[in-house]
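Why predict the complex rather than its parts? Because the way molecules touch one another can change local conformation, and only a joint prediction can capture that. The input here totals 706 residues.
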Amino acid sequence: MRVLFVEDNMALAETVVERFRKEGHVIDHESDGDEADYILRQKQFDLILLDINLPGRNGFELLRAIRARNLDTPVLVLSARSEIDDRVVGLDAGADDYMTKPFDFRELIARCRALARRKSGLARNLFTAGNFTFDWGTKLANVAGKDIELRNKEVQLLELFLTSLDRVLTKEEIADKIYNFDETPSFNAIEQTITRLRKKLDGSPFLIKTIRGLGYIGHMDET
Amino acid sequence: MKHASKRLTQKSMRHRLILSMGAGFLAILTVICIGLWGYAQQAANESYDRLLHGAALAILERANLASGEVRVDIPYSAFEILGLAKEDRVFYRIFTQDDETITASHNLRPKANYKPSESPVYWDDAFSGESVRFMQQARFLTGDNRSLWVIVQFGQTCIARHDMIAELFWRGFAVALFITVVGLLFVWIAINSALHPLIDVEQNLRQRDISDFTPLPVTPPREVASLVLSINGFISRLKNNLDHSQIFIADVTHQIRTALSALQGQLELASKEQSPELLKGRIEKAERQNRQTIHLTNQLLAHAMVIHRADQKIVSDIHLADLLKTVLQTLLREHVKSDIDFSVNIAPDIENGGKTADLIAGDSISIREAISNVIDNAIKHGPANNRIDISLFEHTLKLRGRERKQLILQVDDAGPGIPEERRAKVLERFYTTGTGNDGSGLGLSIVDEVMRSHKAQLRLGHSALGGLSVRMIFTRKTVGIPT
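Output of the joint prediction:
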């Protein structure tokens, strides 16, 4: 994966760059917002890691400029400012994810992978995470080289979770998305489908966490 | 600042008092002037009318009717009397009731609709380009075969009268003006002496050293004394607050330095470690210590943030159920892999209760911080297979016959809980339950700060699940619904 890292703190930049290189990624580092903008006009990246406090133009301005050019490269915002205010602004400005400094490196790399995959997976029609793959075209799931047989509803459910990883899906949302008007969705049926899906994908990094009373969270555990 | 001080001078008490007193005096002076003018005119007319009257009487006395002929001798004394007004000219005409002139200096027009009478009549008119005071008086003469009215008409220019009016008016005015000026001077002195205690207070405060918290001397008058007492109360509260901040800063310094020293120690040990096995262990320890330091720093910043925001009084309408869901959305994402059994229960009357069912007034960022801290606390102190129940429900409180709706956010866990005697203690800063866990000692104190700044209640209790039960009790905001 080809990453652009925009960060003005050299000590932090050095460690992140080294870590990404060790993982086998290509990473370019820029410490100035204007220069980062220039380089983004010249080269293609799979992911942008963006700090907010930057010399030149700040992270949000850069982000807006990128999005204004219809560049849909995933952006992960790194912020050390009073977190929550910035999160909202960052996501509104077109960021795909955020992390607050100081962050865990494993977590950072996992998030980056998830973001880059989301895009390349859509392009190649194949979702890959660890030993798990899912082909969007043929609807085939595979864990550790073994094809998993999935029923119709299970496939729909899996697709729903894969498109909204790390987000709470309420039972109502699930019922809305995978049942049509003719079928009467019962929350019990959803629960059962999830239990079956969980069992069939056991051993893969894909997890579904139940939050009783609220819904479910799908997650790819790659750390 | 400049703007503010300009506004302050405009609102100076001294200026306002002197302006209003000045306006009052001016009004009185105007009234006095109008009165004075009228009085001077009346006095001048009365004095000089008497001259005309006297002259007329002297002439009429000498008028007689001899063998049907009216005869008038104008006595010298009549003109002497009139001569008292030295610069004025006098015109006269003596005539009968049939307007038959007996003798005259000028052809004067008699008063219109005049009915001959023995009492004098006065009027003002213009004559030969001057304003002239006229008078007319008659005498009834009776002869042997005939009787008739003889009428004397005088006109006198008004130079003496005007002089007298001016003199009377300006003298009176000078006295009134003098009284006004002296009055205003007294007012100025009175204002200054009344404001003097305030100026003392101002100087005391202005010259005061920033670290001087001694109370101001309380001096009479009563009005100023009560102000000074209020200022003293404020000073003592400020001192209290500052003392607390100083203790807090000392505590923070201690905590951060300790954490950093521990980290430094681990790193030094690691750098001198020869065996790769042990080195790994050292580095792991250093990493753990670093995580604790990060957590401590984050909590310190969060604590500072909620206090700052409470001071700023940032308040907006918050939908508590929505806020809770957003917090859970972010928070639970970090714990997907854990075995903790989470359950969320939002009461149906809140979930389906319309727009105001979960409305409170407050600062969403602080409340978010409080909720995350309560849930984080439950996660951190509980076992790996903890059970955490989060519920939001409404409660109606009857208080002196009035109903108050409360929204209660309750977090129950199956962790070790907190024994009753230590529940008050854990709300204090840097107090940890202590058994080797890596808590910052700030979590519940942050929650407590947020609750206090929102006038909400924080209750710690024993949970039915076996651990701690934390209740955050907010007052529901009622919009347009009379309670």
